[in-house]
TrEMBL record:
Extent of Acidic residues compositional bias: 1-18
Secretion signal, residue range per the UniProt entry: none
Highest taxon listed in the record's lineage: Bacteria
Organism expressing this protein natively: Ligilactobacillus ubinensis
Stretches for region Disordered: 1-36, 62-90, 150-169
Compositionally biased intervals (Basic and acidic residues): 27-36, 77-90
Name the record gives this protein: DUF4355 domain-containing protein
Source lineage: Bacteria, Bacillati, Bacillota, Bacilli, Lactobacillales
Pfam annotation, one family: DUF4355
InterPro entries given in the database record: Gp46
Length: 181
């Protein structure tokens, strides 16, 4: 009985392995169909994520509205004022971060350092810390460059002239010996 199952499996595999020839139109149709399925799946996933985020925002807004409904007029005004102050502080922080980023990029350009370091340096947050870090980076890179230049300019010490001319296997040396006598 197991041989029967094995034979059936082998036959099924052989049938699956048979080559199917499709025309260009059929192949394109199948490829388009597969692409459409993938796009639909991606859209479905993105839509689900959007719905989740939207629902969270709605719930947050409802709870905020419920809080405001329970408050007195003065409490509402205070809450609105606090919300405005928070939004203003957030905008000011973003503006300061952009300004700091632009300044850091300018300094990096002036010092001849890669501008790609600006995001990492801005993460430090404090202008003094950033300037210190830029100074350290600049000094370190300059030292490394100088060291590499010195290494590349370094040559072997020349041999003394007397030892170079005393080579006994040199044919010119033999000729010179003849004329010295």
């Amino acid at each position: 009985m197991t041989e029967n199952n094995e034979n059936e499996q082998v036959e099924n595999e052989q049938e699956e392995q048979e080559q199917v020839t499709l025309s260009q139109k059929e192949l394109q149709s199948k490829l388009d169909s597969e692409a459409d399925k993938r796009v639909a799946k991606a859209l479905e996933k993105a839509n689900a994520e959007f719905e989740t985020k939207l629902q969270a925002k709605l719930d947050e807004a409802k709870s905020e509205g419920a809080k405001l409904a329970k408050m007195s007029a003065s409490e509402k005004a205070a809450a609105e004022q606090k919300a405005k102050e928070d939004a203003l502080a957030q905008r000011e922080e973003e503006l300061n971060k952009r300004e700091l980023s632009a300044n850091v990029k300018d300094i990096l350009n002036e010092k001849g350092l890669p501008v790609s370091l600006s995001d990492s340096l801005v993460a430090l947050g404090d202008a003094d810390k950033i300037n210190d870090a830029i100074g350290i980076l600049s000094k370190s890179i300059e030292e490394q460059v100088n060291q590499k230049v010195k290494e590349s300019l370094r040559t072997e010490q020349p041999k003394t002239g007397s030892t170079v001319l005393k080579d006994t296997t040199d044919p010119f040396q033999k000729i010179m010996e003849k004329y010295k006598k």
